[in-house]
Task: structure prediction
Amino acid sequence: MDKQDSIFGKWSRRDLLKGLGSLPLIGGVWYAGAKVTGNAKSEKSFLLETLNIKASPPPPSGPMSGKPIRLGIIGFGIRGEQLCRALGFATTEWLDEMKANAEKNPKDNRLKDFLAQENLNIRLTGVCDIFDARAEKALRSFSRDDNKIKRYASHKEMVNSGEVDAVVIATPDHWHAPMAMDALNAGVNVYVEKPMTHNIAETYALRDVVKANPRLVFAVGHQHRQTQSFLTAQDVISKNILGHVSLIETNTNRNDDNGAWQYEIHPEASPSTIDWKAFLGNAPEAPFNLEHFFRWRKWWAYGSGLSGDLLTHDYDRVNCILKMGIPASVTASGGIYTHRDGRNVPDVLQVNMEFPEFTTGSSQEPGKERGMTFVYSATLGNQFDRGTIFMGHDGSMELGNSLTVYADPRSTKHNQLIKDGKIDPYVPVYQYDPAANGTDAVTSATAKYFANKGLLWTYRDGKRVDSTFLHLREWLSCIRNGGKPSCGIQEGFEEAISAHMAGLSYKIGRRIDWDASSEKIISLPGEDLDAILLANTEKVKVDSMA
Amino acid sequence: MRNVNLSQAQKTGLVLLRLLIGWHFLYEGVIKLYNPSWTARGYLLSAEFLKPVFVFLADDGLIGIVDSLNIGLLIIVGVMLMAGLKTSWAAIGGMLLLALYYLAHPPFTGVTQGPAEGTYWIVNKNLIELAALYVLYQFPTSTSFGVEALFRKSKIETA
Result:
């Protein structure tokens, strides 16, 4: 207004108000934003400090230097090819396909990631596959003038050739243990796919052979043990944040034919290109059958259906976190409800494993809490994502590639913090989210939504890595530098016995008990458990009074 | 400077709109600035429309720059709109950001909708805010309320 009112001469007070009036507002908004985030951060760091959860990667596996390890691959099917890629060997067909994909979509990084993978310093020296097309594919892709790869007619020839230091076994289940034992007896290191064994007797026999060869490294292919969120979960348990865990829910939900083991039948497959007798091995005599050869997971004679293929993953995931070992008893039920195509393994399966003496710790009076049930629930006819949940008196933990921990509203341990409003039981107290820049104690619904959207990679120190690669690398490092693989014979033994108990319970239709002192599955007089487990029928009628 | 003859009430309405949008931008920027674990990665990676573009932006090598640029632009646009400094430029910057947010998760039929506080089809709040910025671009008000008012005044006086 009046010029003389102005401190800046030419501008009146009104001018200044109009010109700079919004500046305090800007300051206010900035202050509010900084304060809100500051509060959230201090709440978060308070919680993180109180809970003290730390993502704890194991010591990285050792150097890959020295003489190259001479490696043989037994079984070059779907999984065999994947394992070879993780070892640094991709087929020409795969490379061409990925090159084409990358040209179509420049952000398809599969080829780039493969080429960037660390060299594990191995020489692929042998391949063994009883189907000509697959063995030839491996030779065509990997055999070079400076490194001729030999095709062996049988795994025995390969392991006794003196040309391999280590083998990767990716065959149907009924060949896992016999091949692993032959390899170990021949002084060859073994990486075997899961399930470790196909029957009970060979589970003990394989353990004996591994123990008799302490200098050889034996590993079972449960690669999820390398996943960061699982390592963090171990820390959550060891800090007793969940209190006494009484129930764990795990599951498989698939709803496609490939997921139900309806694998493709190769056009070149015929009695002249497949060594059928070698395929059968210890399985019951059967005429040549392409369904059996390519879709072997559907029959107890060669595979073990949900309990061997998928329960084993979930069991081992939890066993790697809790180390709860073999259940005292197992009950299972289910049926063939979604794929009535002649298979005899169930496609819907519910397994309850009881651990009456197990506890993850307690926050209540001593003696009140003890015992836990592990539930595996599966269907091959629906893919609703149910998540793996650890349910404790003090909290719940949802485990996947991301990891989310909630305090329980009725928790004893977190009672005070909940009362003080420092913990909201409906907001995660901790979240490890690979898509965020760090760990979050308090996170939004949006963050949870994205984390659960299936951005599924294994992360190590913020870097995306393939867990199968890490798992194989760990095995190779143990061979080179010594040490114990994270999934060795003890873990494999527990996995195999637990899975076989589930298979048995399904087949017989009764609870199967484990005698921990004698390390035996309890059978009724005259009952041959292996005969029941392997019987190539859906169910086995057992006279309980036998 | 465009020639527009607006009543005082109309100008007040436009200034209010400018301040509110500026406030929103600034607050969004500041919140992200002070939260080190914030990243647009999840938002970008889950894009379904123009997926390659947004997935490219979320690349390991780029996401740091993308996050910093986003935070920086949000704050700058917010401050400029509130302060009344080059508001036309700010409006363009703001529209650009909003267009990116909109296109990453547009409310189109057939595109998965993330969590939202309302229900939308084609039009959502990002798009409305974008249109509002277009109005501000067409009707600049920084000379009636804002830092530029001072200089306009001085220019007129010295003219």
